[in-house]
Amino acid sequence: MKLYIKLGVFLLAISVIAASCSKFVEGEDISPNDPQNASAASLLSAAEVGLFATYGGGQLDRNASIMVQHATGISDQMIEVTRYNILEGDNVNEWELIYADILINTNTLIEKYGEQSPHYAGIARVIQALAIGVATDYWGAVPWTDALRGLKDNEDGFNPFYDSQESILSPNSNSELALQTILDQALVLFNASENIYTPGADDFIHGGDIDAWIKTAYMVKARYAQRLSNRPEYDASVVLGYLTSANLTGTMDDANCIFGVAGNEYNQWFAFQNDRGYMRMCETFIAPLRENNDPRLPFFADSSGTNQDQYVGTVYGELTTGTCSFGPYFASKTSPIPLVSYVEMKFIEAEAKFATDPGGAADAYNEAVIQSVEQVTGAEIPEDFKNEFASETSATITHEKIMTQKYYALVGQIEVYADWRRTGIPSLTPYPGASAIPFRLPTVLDERLYNTNAPSPPVSDIYLPLWWQNLVTK
After folding, report:
1. DSSP per-residue string spanning 220-261
2. Per-residue pLDDT tens for 325-336?
3. The pLDDT of residue 19 is above 80
4. Which residues have CB under 8 Å from 70's CB, separation 6+?
5. In this structure, CATH architecture of domain 40-208+435-466
6. Are 372 and 443 contacting, i.e. CB atoms less than 8 angstroms apart?
7. Are the beta carbons of 449 and 422 closer than 8 angstroms?
8. What are the beta bridge partners of residue 163?
9. What is the pLDDT of residue 154?
10. What is the DSSP letter of 197?
11. Pairing label, strands 337-340, 255-257
């Protein structure tokens, strides 16, 4: 009987689809589902959802957490990531998400509505910077200036060339789509006073608040200016200038991935843990928090499934299951995940000031730790913890302290992996038997197969440093 019911439903679905398609093409040659015909609101919402899937606990974020040993895989495909068995077909979906869901929708939004509704175009540019930023952070050279030509040139544009990471991120780049350039474009667009359409509830991140988007643009600029700390192009004063322009006042300035109460809207850390359970918190991350009596520990980790109901993580590379799961702060059903945040910016300020203004660096660091603890716990920072970990001076502050506390504070966020690759802090031991921790992902399978301008031979060495790492050896 079940077979007949399923067959009946299947045939009904086909008949509905056929009828719908008939209506679509009757007198029309373009589907109303085509992004080119979508409203500004739907294009923005779709692009932001794609951004949430990329930054908010999706596969790229989970990979990052394993590389920096916030978490570790205990079964199925996450064991392979933990063992660094990362292949060219593993992240095809994540690549397509960045290009199809985020960049195509934002490009269409800019081209169709940008001239008459510049605020929409400005938001789209910031979203593009976040999307292409994470792409180049993972793959190095990626299609960008030529990436969306296929929308106009049909098959002639389906083989985009690759932009070097330097051309995307260098402040000296002459590319019209360099990351800092498109953020500058966004800031100009935000100053426009006339808009036919204005973002509102369709903007899940800031609800159409353009002042908040201006802050976000400057925060992204500061992040990627600090990304170049190992490069000759780096200028700490530029980083600090962006932070001054952001005019941040507190954690209310955060730009977050937002999740809902419906099953298909859940925070992805929660959904992955709840549906699959292939990962646990890593003892590398848990142990120092436990030893330091860090008040954030019960929010960062869930001990309810442990054997002794204690805060213990799985040792990296082992398959122990009776250990902590992801905690409620970043992995409840509706927990927001920061795209960029006030706490991250205070750590960036501390790092940028460290060489020339250690007192200012100490002040920024202390503020970062205090705000992290109070935001995570919802309570005033305990005095003993503050005295030990958030009372640095010009004489006691170190770069290692800044980056170590940032490593704790940004748990669940993709940015930590970039920080570790850039600074090597904290010191991490690779998976047993491996000589190093990977720096990147291999060229995506679909690019090797179908893009004649993809790297040849494809990049398969996941230990190859990125341009902004500026490392001589692995």
Report:
1. HHHHHHHTTTTSTT--HHHHHHHHHHHT--SGGG-EEE---S
2. 999 999 999 999
3. no
4. 281, 282, 285, 411, 412, 416
5. Alpha Horseshoe (1.25)
6. no
7. no
8. 142
9. 61
10. S
11. antiparallel
Q: Is the pLDDT of residue 448 over 90?
A: yes
Q: What is the 3-state secondary structure (H, E, C) of 98-160?
A: HHHHHHHHHHHHHHHHCCCCHHHHHHHHHHHHHHHHHHHHHHCCEECCCCCCHHHHHHHHCCC
Q: Which residues are CB-neighbours of 93 under 8 A, at least 6 positions away?
A: 59
- CA dihedral (187, 193, 194, 197) positive or negative: positive
Give the Cα separation of 100 and 47 in Å (integer): 9
Residue 281 is predicted with a pLDDT of: 96
Q: Model-level pTM?
A: 0.91
Q: Cα dihedral sign for 246, 250, 254, 260?
A: negative
Q: What is residue 74's DSSP assignment?
A: -
Apex 91 CA angle, 88 and 94, nearest 5: 150
Helices 118-139 and 104-113, axial angle in degrees (round to 10) = 160
Considering only CA atoms, which of 273, 389, 254 is closest in space to residue 331?
Answer: 273
Q: Give residue limits of the domains in the chain.
A: 40-208+435-466, 263-331
CA distance 327 to 335: 10
Mean pLDDT of 41-70: 97
User: pLDDT value at position 308?
Assistant: 65
C-alpha to C-alpha distance for 458 and 442, rounded to whole angstroms: 8
pLDDT at 291: 96
CB of 234 closer than 8 Å to CB of 255: no
Q: What would the pLDDT profile of 251-293 be if each residue is shown by its tens digit?
A: 999 999 999 998 889 999 999 999 988 999 999 999 999 999 9
Percent of the chain with pLDDT over 90: 84
